[in-house]
Specification:
By secondary structure, the chain is α+β, with helices and mostly antiparallel strands. Helix content is 55%, strand content 13%. It has helices at residues 3-25, 51-60, 66-77, 83-87, and strands at 29-32, 40-43, 47-50.
C-alpha cells in the first residue's frame, strides 16, 4: 500500500466515524479544524471535539448524548476534565 492509498483509507474511515457520530447525536459536521482530518472536528457551528473523543464515544457505546453533556459542562465551567474522565464520573 502506498502513502496515497493509506491516507485515502484513513480519510474514509474518519468520514465513517463522523457520519456515525452525526447520526448518533443528531448533529451536523461542519469541518475539520485547520483542515486536518483526524484532528479536531466542528459540529453545529458550536461543538468542537477531538477525533479521539469521537472514536471513544462510538467505540465504547457510552450513553447517547453524554458527550454533548460533557461539552456543555466543559464550556460552562472552563473545565480541564477529559471526556474519558467524565465518562467515569469525574466532574
Amino acid at each position: 500500500m502506498n502513502m496515497h492509498e493509506l491516507k485515502s483509507e484513513y480519510d474514509n474511515l474518519a468520514a465513517k466515524y463522523i457520519r456515525a457520530f452525526e447520526i448518533r447525536h443528531s448533529v451536523e459536521f461542519d469541518f475539520w479544524v485547520c483542515g486536518m482530518v483526524g484532528g479536531d472536528a466542528s459540529f453545529n457551528k458550536y461543538y468542537r471535539l477531538s477525533y479521539e473523543d469521537i472514536r471513544r464515544d462510538i467505540d465504547s457505546g457510552s450513553p447517547r448524548g453524554l458527550i454533548l453533556e460533557y461539552l456543555n459542562y466543559y464550556y460552562k465551567h472552563n473545565s480541564k476534565v477529559t471526556f474519558n474522565d467524565y465518562c467515569r464520573g469525574v466532574r
